[in-house]
């Protein structure tokens, strides 16, 4: 029984072929493709308004130099948002519950922000490793601590997204299992657990949206430090 709870996090396959790529590409197919005119229907208008809102929120903490990253950050935000929300549907697979995938998204982008800072302003980027006015005896320890905190950033991004989504999926499965088990023996308790399940589902929708936003927002803050 304990192992079956984690079966939902295993990558699906068909005839030995992994289907995780299909799960990653499918959210993009749900977006309406632009036509010849600027605005075709209400759905396109709503999509443009939502993308514009996300772009504005992500570009607020960035300088003008960081606006070059608008396309990358907005596309990543839309991808994570759709993937997280679609993973809440029954009998679906959530690629963002895989730590390997989240690290594959976090590490290259974090490294790109770091290399941008080392190329444009190397003295300022390296100066973050040693705060001004540090006593001489504490310099080696602080450099080691700051370097460790810098290198652990992509790991923290990936683990945060994976842990929050995994915990939410496990809670939903545990409470739904309890609801179906208690339905025949204790129907009143089953109704109470069903109400808790509905509230938890609403909470997980909010968590899926917030975690996608936090992932991209932290990347934008790392970028701001290096430009």
Task: Supply database-style keywords.
two-stranded antiparallel sheet, mainly alpha, 227 residues, 2 strands
Provide a short characterization of the protein structure.
Helices cover 71% and strands 2% of the residues. It is mainly alpha-helical.
Radius of gyration, whole Å: 22 Å
Distance between the termini: 51 Å
* Global shape: globular
Structural class: mainly alpha
Keywords: ATP synthesis, CF(0), Hydrogen ion transport, Ion transport, Membrane, Mitochondrion, Mitochondrion inner membrane, Transmembrane, Transmembrane helix, Transport
Family: Belongs to the ATPase A chain family.
Pfam families: ATP-synt_A
Membrane topology: Multi-pass membrane protein
Describe this structure in words.
With 227 residues, the protein is mainly α. The protein has one domain. It contains 9 helices and 2 strands, in the order αββαααααααα. It has a two-stranded antiparallel sheet with strand order 1-2. Strand 1 and strand 2 form a beta hairpin. The N and C termini lie far apart (51 Å).
């Amino acid at each position: 029984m304990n192992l079956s709870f984690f079966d939902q996090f295993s990558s699906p396959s068909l005839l030995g072929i992994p289907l995780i790529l299909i799960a990653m590409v499918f959210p993009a197919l749900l977006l309406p493709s632009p036509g010849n005119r600027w605005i075709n229907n209400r759905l396109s208008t709503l999509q443009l308004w939502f993308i514009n809102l996300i772009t504005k929120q992500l570009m607020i903490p960035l300088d003008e130099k960081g606006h070059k990253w608008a396309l990358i950050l907005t596309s990543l935000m839309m991808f994570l948002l759709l993937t997280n929300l679609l993973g809440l549907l029954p009998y679906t697979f959530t690629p963002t519950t895989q730590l390997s995938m989240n690290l594959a998204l976090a590490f290259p982008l974090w490294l790109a922000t770091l290399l941008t800072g080392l190329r444009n302003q190397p003295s300022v980027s390296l100066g973050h490793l040693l705060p001004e006015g540090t006593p001489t005896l504490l310099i080696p320890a602080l450099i080691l601590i700051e370097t460790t905190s810098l290198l652990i950033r992509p790991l923290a991004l990936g683990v945060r997204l994976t842990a929050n989504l995994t915990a939410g999926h496990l809670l939903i499965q545990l409470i739904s299992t309890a609801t179906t088990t208690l339905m025949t023996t204790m129907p009143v308790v089953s109704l109470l657990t069903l109400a808790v399940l509905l509230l938890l589902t609403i909470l997980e929708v909010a968590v899926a949206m917030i975690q996608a936003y936090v992932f991209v927002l932290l990347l934008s803050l790392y970028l701001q430090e290096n430009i």
